[in-house]
Amino acid sequence: MEVAEGDKARFSLKKLPMGYRFLPTDEELVVYYLINKAFYRPLPAEVIPDIREREFYSSPPSDLVMPFSGERQRFFFIHSDENFHGDLKRTTRIVGNGMGFWKLSGEGDPIYSPGDKNISAFKFQFTYFSGPPLAAKKTHWRMEEYRLPIDFYMKNDMKGEGLALGRIRRNKEYDCGF
């Protein structure tokens, strides 16, 4: 489908056509989704739901992904809650009442703006552990979290509510029958 240049800003798909899969690159997620969401601009397709941080971390990843599709991954715009116990910089994020936790693997990887050397976002990788911290078992669930740099909000005179784009996925080694 061809879209006139002037209509591109207004054009947005409510859902993807039958047979299409949402498989964006890291750069596409940042440029076309995360940055547009931060500026309240229209998104190319409305395929990423919004969720509050408190709701996101109240359930294990299987509850967030499984009910919606047979896909191995699910995307979310995660909005931070001011009074939530969480600190966005913490390396461990408790799920529910201690039923598990997400643990940060390494440091944030920079994602560069297309065509230049400027950092447009950071990608953080988490692994899900099931059970209480002292008896936890590593699972097949992974999360990639994309965040804009703090100076992005300052440079654009935005308060920044702590918006993140999260991708939860089952590791490829795991076969659940799909």
Automatic annotation (TrEMBL):
Superkingdom classification of source: Eukaryota
Q: Any idea which UniProt keywords this protein has?
A: DNA-binding, Nucleus, Transcription, Transcription regulation
Q: Where is the NAC domain?
A: 16-171
Tell me which PROSITE patterns the record gives: NAC
Which Pfam families would you find in this protein's record?
NAM (PF02365)
Record-given protein name: NAC domain-containing protein
Which species is this record about? Vitis vinifera (Grape)
